[in-house]
Write a structure and sequence with these properties.
By secondary structure, this protein is mainly alpha-helical. The protein has helices at about 1-25, 30-50, 50-75, 75-80. It contains four helices and no strands. Helix 1 (about 1-25) packs antiparallel against helix 2 (about 30-50) and helix 1 (about 1-25) packs parallel to helix 3.
Length: about 90
Amino acid sequence: MDVLIITLLIIGAVILFLAEIFFVPGISLAGFAGLGCLIYANYYAFIYIGTTAGIITLIVSAIACLGSIYLFMKSKTLDRVALKKT
């Protein structure tokens, strides 16, 4: 059950960070909520599961956030949602 909670928090954080960066630029509620999800996922892993799981969660959450941003920018999704002058 603990792994499910951590996984859902990391997935939620990634989704909120992508929404913050590409759809709602600037510092807004999505950014704060994503940061809160990441912090709580790492806190939960360190406190309730242990130090090893906390370090693994920290590494996985960093890779998930940076990797999803990289893949989103590399794909053509950004071109489709960007505003363009005609």
